[in-house]
Design a protein that fits this description.
Largest sheet: 5 strands, mixed
Order of helices and strands: HHHHHHHEHEEHEEHHEE
Number of helices: 11
Structural class: alpha+beta
Low-confidence stretches: 1-10
Number of strands: 7
Strand order of the largest sheet: 2-4-5-7-6
Shape: rod-shaped
Helix content: 55-70%
Mean pLDDT: 80
Distance between the termini: 48 Å
Strand content: 5-15%
């Protein structure tokens, strides 16, 4: 599950990566501004509230300390009666104001002072109630009335003192808020410096990451193109983690596969063309032998050599049967040797005592497969260019042996003691065998045909013909092939 998620989210568009990076950078840059605005608004509102609270507290402190005692004194002095006095209104204003300040307060010390002021206000209200009762009942004399009024003034002064302490507490809070406002530029500057460093580090990291995301796929594609240029059509490039490169990589891989397929098709077509060319060349060689064989049969029949006619006819029949082989290109080594023996039987009847031959074949090789008609052209070349051009009797030795101790390769040699080649002619023959096209060949059709077929059919497992020769000493034509038990026909 984790691997699937990695695979799904591991690939990313460059556009999305850059946009995300910009969004993160903008968000980080906005943090100081947002923080500054919030803190400035908060402290400004707090400072204004403190100023309002102080002003409000100062007003109710004056009412409690001055206005209420004056209103009560006016009652005692007879200038106003209880109903005309405003002391109840003032008490209500003080109570409501203290409760309002308590609700607005967010400082523990200020709240404690306000609660104490509220209780003092309640005490003041009770004493004023007693004062009103005595005034209404006229039970108190002047001295008692003045004494009660002094107590009310004392409570009012105590309330005023508590409010004064509250005002001092609020002023201290206002001073702290003001100090914070004054010091906030330094804090904001430091904070901005940290943000700048963080953003610079983020930009540098994103630059390196983005550079790597672009550079690595391009480097891989460059290596991939180098491998293609070097001929490695099996090369493959993995899909990068950047979606913009996906189609390009897929197209490159598809192009490599297509080139590889076209190359294989072209090679196959070239091989087929070469096989067709070799077949045409071989068709030019076969009639020459057929004509000579039929001439020999006619000559033997005219001479009345019935047994020789039967022998050559039987050998020729076997020779043609193996040559055709129902269209197969591969036969066993035993069949190839039999084919050559039939050929030599026919040639022996033609040339008589001037041609002798010998086979040295390891019987363990009989069932290994060999390319058909690999030996007969070599023996034909030994007869026509070696034995015939030499005076006296000639000898051909055909050998087939394992060429290595591991018994994985077969070496076949056709050795004659004929006229041989001069060094110049030998070099010319080797050059003609190395030609790509079988044109303008100077009487080496058979050797060229065998050499090309060995290289073509065995691919890199056979180096073709090897020829060594000396003038009037003979020629050795050999080749090495792998031991094949079963071969699929093309």
């Amino acid at each position: 599950m984790i691997s699937k998620l990695k695979k799904r989210f591991g690939k990313e568009s460059l556009y999305h990566y850059i946009m995300r990076s910009y969004a993160v950078i903008i968000l980080i840059m906005m943090i100081p501004t947002i923080y500054t605005m919030i803190m400035w608004q908060y402290n400004r509102s707090r400072y204004n509230n403190i100023i309002k609270n102080v002003s409000h507290a100062n007003a109710i402190m004056k009412i409690a300390r001055d206005d209420i005692p004056d209103e009560l004194w006016s009652i005692v002095s007879g200038r106003n009666n209880v109903n005309q006095s405003r002391h109840k209104v003032f008490l209500s204003i003080i109570n409501d104001s203290v409760l309002e300040l308590i609700q607005k307060s967010d400082d523990y010390n200020s709240t404690a002072k306000l609660e104490l002021a509220y209780r003092t206000c309640q005490t003041l209200s009770r004493n004023i109630g007693f004062f009103e009762l005595q005034i209404a009942q006229s039970t108190a004399d002047v001295e008692q009335t003045e004494h009660m009024l002094d107590e009310i003034r004392s409570i009012a002064n105590l309330f005023a003192q508590i409010m004064q302490d509250y005002i001092l507490s609020e002023i201290e809070s206002a001073e702290r808020t003001n100090n914070y406002i004054q010091n906030s530029p330094v804090f904001i500057f430091s904070f901005m410096a940290l943000i700048f460093i963080g953003v610079a580090a983020l930009i540098f990291t994103n630059f390196k990451t983005l550079s790597k995301k672009i550079r690595v796929p391009i480097s891989k594609m460059e290596d991939f193109s180098t491998q293609l240029a070097a001929g490695n059509l099996q090369a493959h490039i993995d899909s990068p983690k950047i979606t913009e490169f996906n189609h390009l990589v897929e197209n490159l891989n598809s192009m490599a596969r297509q080139i590889d397929l076209l190359m294989k098709q072209n090679i196959e077509e070239q091989i087929n063309l070469q096989k067709e060319e070799l077949s045409k060349l071989q068709a030019q060689i076969t009639p020459h032998f057929l004509y000579n064989t039929f001439d020999t049969i006619i000559w033997l029949a005219e001479a009345g050599k019935k047994d020789d006619v039967i022998q050559i006819t039987r050998a020729f029949s076997n020779f043609m049967r193996i040559s055709l082989s129902r269209g197969h290109d591969w036969i066993t080594l035993e069949q190839e040797i039999e084919h050559v023996k039939n050929y030599l039987t026919i040639q022996k009847l033609r040339y008589g005592e001037i041609l002798n031959y010998q086979f040295t074949v390891d019987e363990r090789l009989n069932n290994y497969m060999i390319l058909k008609l690999s030996l007969q052209p070599l023996i034909e070349n030994a007869i026509y260019h070696g034995i015939k051009n030499k005076r006296g009797r000639g000898h051909i030795n055909i050998t087939a042996q394992f060429s290595d101790e591991s018994h994985t390769k077969i070496r076949i040699c056709v050795i004659d003691d004929g006229a041989g080649f001069t060094p110049e002619r030998l070099e010319q023959v080797r050059e003609e065998l190395s030609k790509e096209k079988g044109q303008n060949l100077a009487s080496v059709y058979g050797l060229y045909n065998v050499n090309k077929r060995l290289i073509l059919y065995y691919n890199d497992k056979s180096c073709g013909l090897e020829i060594s020769s000396e003038k009037m000493q003979g020629t050795n034509v050999s080749f090495t092939i792998p031991c094949l038990v079963d071969v699929k026909e093309n």
